[in-house]
Design a protein that fits this description.
Blueprint (H helix, E strand, L loop, with lengths): L10 H6 L12 E4 L46 E4 L6 H7 L4 H7 L13 E4 L30 H8 L7 E4 L2 E4 H12 L3 H12 L24 H20 L5 E3 L5 E3 L6 H11 L4 H7 L5 H9 L30 E8 L10 E5 L14 E2 L4 E7 L2 E5 L10 E6 L12 E2 L4 E3 L13 E7 L2 E2 L9 E2 L2 E5 L6 E5 L2 E4 L9 E2 L2
Antiparallel strand pairs: 1-4, 2-3, 4-5, 6-7, 8-9, 8-22, 9-16, 10-15, 11-12, 11-14, 12-13, 13-16, 16-17, 18-19, 19-20, 20-21
Helix pairs in contact: 2-3, 4-5, 5-7, 6-10, 7-8
Length: about 500
């Protein structure tokens, strides 16, 4: 189940639309800080020092050269765009490499004007105005929640730094979380490296090492009243980092508008992790601050100060050239007929790769309800994590979701849910589908794959294959098919003959 979205002209636009299977920002929050007389940090200018000379016997691993990357050509013609439900000037501008002010001016509007569905806007030609940066900030393996993430004890590290983060607490939907719990949990959920989140937090506001900061409401710099507090700031940041990483991976990101209207392009020689960080700062900064943030003395230096040189820890390639999916079965028991309700769509939030598929259990009811129908393990493995609607099945059996193949089961009811640490065989029961653990308009299973922490798209070169059913998409989020032999089932939000599937 999900909210069906109308087909969009661009992958970018589809990724910006609200989907039914997303992890929402919490509804309530309150943050609790111990006061201090230490000098506050200034946003985006946390003092950092470059590393000293390395000993001769310690190798310096420089960024490895990346293979040629196809960068899409910037649009060279003025376009007409018809406003769709949910559109804003900001979302349209971002999708078409413009800033909101430029788009508004081209249509004699204010950036705060409401748009009407069916309204036709003129999209001017994007004009790069800022020299690109070729400096590589981080390897891809330091952006995703991959193998080297397993070597960091997030709580111990944060406490060792003694900064504001080490004594920060925030109430999220009635539960008090520590800063360390937020960093650790959100990095796992979004599959973003906690080292990167901590380095961004340090660079933007000094929270990791400083006892106090002027940036208590917006520690990562995204000023939005609905995103106050560390939990929502980290959620926003992790989602945006996924967004840039995923777009670069499918050759769908050529440029990004900065906060001041300047437009910067991304050179073909950059890697996905670096481009994602450059795009992140484009959302926040003007030209001067962006140039500083993506330079050797910007975020990179903050990262080095906390964790040493990121390329010394590089694990590449994260996805081997000959990567293949292991044999998987459908997540249903043998006699059950389920509905295929969602084709390829975002695995977590709305910024990750379209790694997920949705299935609804056999039932005559609609909406959110309890069911006795079971969802089962798609392969042998061990349960690496279980809670809050989530179950992570680790296929290599080491119990680490940062390594090898893992499967995310989302919206798993608390009742009868398999416990973490349980060793399972293909077909063993995992739990019951529900609406728990995220935004959902009906009881269903949200299923997604990762390899070495990278979300694996279900509409890409490595389709999601279960019991011989192979996934495909049509370029619009939630639309798609599963095909086996000469039989095809089509995703649809409901129960129709064309979306019925069984083992």
């Amino acid at each position: 189940m999900k909210f069906r979205t109308a087909p969009a002209a661009l992958w970018l636009m589809a990724a910006l639309l609200l989907a039914g299977c997303v992890k929402p920002a919490p509804n309530t929050h309150a943050w609790l800080l111990n006061t201090s007389t230490a000098a506050p940090a200034t946003l985006g200018t946390a003092a950092v020092a470059l590393p000293t000379q390395r000993p001769a016997n310690v190798p310096y691993l420089t960024p490895t050269p990346d293979s040629a990357h196809a960068v899409p050509t910037l649009r060279a013609q003025t376009l007409q765009y018809t406003v769709q439900s949910g559109d804003t000037l900001a979302s349209i501008a971002l999708a078409y490499q413009l800033d909101a002010a430029t788009l508004a001016a081209a249509n004699q509007l204010s950036v705060n004007d409401w748009l009407q569905v069916g309204q036709v806007l003129t999209l001017p030609v994007p004009q790069p105005t800022l020299s690109p940066s070729t400096f590589k900030i981080i390897p891809d393996s330091e952006l995703v929640y991959g193998p080297m993430s397993a070597t960091l004890d997030v709580t111990a590290f944060i406490q060792s730094q003694g900064g504001l983060l080490s004594r920060y607490s925030e109430e999220v939907d009635g539960v008090v979380w520590t800063g360390a719990q937020m960093v650790d949990t959100l990095s796992r959920e979004y599959s973003v490296n906690p080292r990167l989140l901590l380095a961004l937090l340090e660079y933007q506001s000094g929270w990791v090492t400083r006892a106090n900061s002027a940036q208590t409401s917006y520690p990562l710099g995204w000023v939005d009243e609905s995103r106050q507090g560390l939990y929502k700031q980290l959620s926003w940041a992790a989602n945006q980092l996924n967004y840039g990483y995923s777009l670069w991976g499918i050759n769908a990101l050529a440029a990004a508008p900065l906060a001041d209207g300047n437009l910067v392009t991304f050179p073909a020689g950059l890697n996905a992790g670096t481009v994602s960080v450059q795009r992140f700062f484009a959302l926040l900064d003007d030209a001067s601050r962006w140039s500083a943030a993506v330079s050797e003395t910007g975020l990179y230096a903050a990262y080095v100060q906390l964790f040493d040189i990121p390329f010394d820890r590089s694990v590449e390639p994260l996805l081997p050239a000959d990567l293949s999916q292991p044999v998987l079965q459908l997540p249903f028991e043998n006699t059950d007929v389920w509905s295929f309700t969602g084709g390829p769509h975002s695995a977590w939030g709305d910024g990750s790769a379209w790694a997920a598929l949705d299935f609804a259990p056999p039932d005559s009811r609609y909406g959110c309800y309890s069911t006795s129908i079971w969802e089962v393990a798609v392969a042998d493995g061990v349960i690496a994590r279980s809670g809050n609607g989530e179950v992570i099945l680790d296929l290599d059996g080491d119990g680490l979701e940062q390594t090898g193949w893992t499967i995310l089961y989302m919206h798993v009811a608390a009742a009868d849910r398999v416990a973490a640490g349980t060793v399972v065989k293909a077909g063993d029961r995992i739990g019951h589908p529900s609406c728990e653990g995220g935004v959902s308009n009906g009881t269903h299973l949200h299923l997604a794959r990762r390899y070495n922490g990278v979300w694996i798209a279900a509409d890409g070169s490595l389709p999601f294959v279960m019991d011989g059913w192979s996934s495909a998409g049509d370029g619009s989020q939630y639309n798609g098919t599963l095909t086996r032999g000469g039989v095809t089932v089509t995703a649809w939000d409901g129960r129709v003959a064309q979306n019925q599937i069984q083992r």
